[in-house]
Input
Amino acid sequence: MVFAAAVAVAFSRVDYDWNWPAVWGYRRKFLQGWLVTVAVSLSALVVSGLVGSVAALMLRSGNSLVEAAARVYVELIRGTPLLVQLLIGFYVVATAVGLENRYVAGVLLLSLFSGAYMAEIFRGGLDAIPRAQIDSGRAIGLTPWQSLRLVVLPQAVRLVLPAVAGQLVSLVKDSSLLSVIAISELTLNAQEVNAFTYSTLESYLPLAAGYLMLTLPLSALARWLEHRFRYEIA
Amino acid sequence: MNLVVTDLVQRFPAPAGGGRTAGSVTVLDRLSLATGEIGTLVLVGPSGGGKSTLLRILAGLDMPAAGDVAFDGEPLPRDEEGLRCYRRTVGTVFQAYNLFPHLTAMENLLLPLVHVHGLTEAGARARVQAPLERFRLAEHAHKRPAELSGGQKQRIAILRALVVQPRRLFLDEPTSALDPEMRAEVLEMIAELRAEGRQFVLVTHEMAFARRVADEIAFVADGRVTCGGSTEAFFGRPADPRVRAFLATTLVP
Output
């Protein structure tokens, strides 16, 4: 509330010529950009979940070579800016392997980025399941795969939900950087409208609103899931 | 059952310190043991003596570094796949945290029946109903472990091991984590099952209970069985001075 009031006061003091009609003329452009952002984010959300799962399993595979490979991936991705990854990934790597569709490349690069964070979240969740639970699963004769599916994952999901939700919200916002490889998503379109109309605030405020329309439902969904999976630890 | 253990060795990596590569700690040191034809074997002895380590090997949870184990002349498998099949024919209950916290008591009971032993959900429910009622647990079947008392949790855990119709049960200090009043209900259940001919190998610190249910007792200390044999002989006139000292401190009535 205090924060909202402070922002309202700040805006009221700004000496600025509002020109909403100019930007309103580009409303279709905003909508198209927003739809691309939705599509790219949702795709990357699914793919990064897969990438994160595989990398997490690799991180605790017990095979030191596999673990080292996954560790290098995670540290390399988490230690470098997404901007650099996108530029090198698209203009150098994707070009070299003949991947010309920038949308596919963009989703893959974003997924690799987010997947590294997901991997560490998943690994933490799996590691948090007590040894006694694994032993109990073995004692009743479960195979390692059954133990993962029936005992470990259902408990780990509940533990990682808040962190995963946070990561997904970040992923949606990080998709704005895809503008640097000329993917026509919401941010790129807002930048273009700004360039056409010189109405900076009128271009970027709808941009913020567009991301909130994605991230708020995502957070709400995560809270609802967290509530559904809630049970006390024995 | 008849159990023969020969020169069993188990080592664990020593806790590493100061960045040096640590060696290993020998927990079982050429442990040997041979029982007669008995129903219940109780393992007793000081903490850290190797009781639980021995029980885990007998239950097929860990593979020994060396040595042989044979129940009724049948040696334990030496590969994980074989041990898993073996574990499906026996039941094991630990000191605590046996139940899966995300499942209700009923779901905990059904899980091995449905996913390991191939029963249908309805068939599994039919099988657990009578035991649940017999041990007055039916009214708690819909609860998650967090809503159960410690004694109820352990009794559900014993039931879960029991409903798959195992050849024998391995119990690792099943009452050590419980309050005294809950200990009694769990021990009573074990005594009842033993009276109807169930076979047990159990680790316990409850000496009065050990005396009541054991056919034979093995005293495990320093990774060996230093004294073993019939319950009467063990409590009557132990030859081993360490056993005498142990019994003196554990307040046998």
